[in-house]
Design goal:
single chain; 5 helices; globular
């Protein structure tokens, strides 16, 4: 699942998601959810944990492959 879809399903704004994930700002979450950048491995792991696996590491790899970025 994409981060933006998860946040919509849980009715979370950028600040609330950043608080759940920890170690990232609301601005950083906004960049991730709109695909302006990918997460570090550490951030991807924290997002995976904060979403109980709904937004997993494979989701970021699929997004990177779709946009032609390095995973």
């Amino acid at each position: 699942m994409r981060l933006i879809d998860y946040m919509r399903s849980e009715n979370l704004d950028d600040a609330a998601m950043a608080e759940r994930v920890g170690g990232i700002t609301a601005h950083g979450i906004r960049k991730l959810k709109y695909g302006e950048r990918g997460p570090s491995i550490e951030t991807a792991i924290r997002i995976n944990e904060a979403t109980a696996g709904s937004v997993g590491l494979n989701d970021w790899a699929r997004d990177a492959a779709r946009t032609g970025e390095a995973a």
